Description:
alpha+beta, Outer Surface Protein A, domain 3, 2 domains, two-stranded antiparallel sheet, 13 helices, DUF2063 domain-containing protein, DUF2063_N_sf, DUF2063
Amino acid sequence: MSRQSEFAAALLDPRQACPPGLISANGADSESRFAVYRNNVLSSLINALADNYPVVTQLVGEEFFRGMAGVYVQSAAPRSPIMSEYGADFSGFIERFEPAAGVPYLADVARLERLQIEAGHAADAQPMSAERVVELLSCPTLAAHLKIAFHPSLRLLKSPFAVVTIWAAHQQKPLVAFEPRAAQNALVLRNGLDVEVLAISHGAHAFITSLQQGLPLTAAIERYTDLDLEHLLGRLIRHQAITGLLSEQVTQ
């Protein structure tokens, strides 16, 4: 192990001793100075996780969250100086963290909060006007070959828990009661400067996923015949999720 790797490992693990060979510029005890520095680093990383996962923090309480986050940071060094990116795999850690097993929906709430961060930092794109969308969809010769281009910030989450309801319940005081064990799908999207979280049906989730994977609109409509297409497309238009309607014939 290189000295740099040894230093990084000791920095994240309070059980490890101060790396040998460290010298303080002012002559102070290197071990005590390193302990202070390590404590500051660990606290900063835990604070970053709390900032990135506020609802997860509320669900388990700050004391439990900081203890859980403390275990996480010991094996998860930052890969970027941008702290909003820290903890991208935190949901997977929560899923394996046995003390959190009593809150089975915690990992999916973390996934939802991560998608919000991703949506907030996604590339920008100009949404297509409602009038233009309706115009193209109303043309039979074009509509048969259209593919939908979605805003780069659009993210989907499928969960066996009521993740949107749980998240929404923690956006207001006092908390609203919720039933966690009701499967729910989330659509996350940046609309202007705001990141929106919407609950969508299982059919809508499957439909949008198919379109994201390049399925032409008419083929998707034929596959999901029980879907209220007019309602779903209207909702996507209102939330400025559609940035383009491309002809499959043109893109080939």
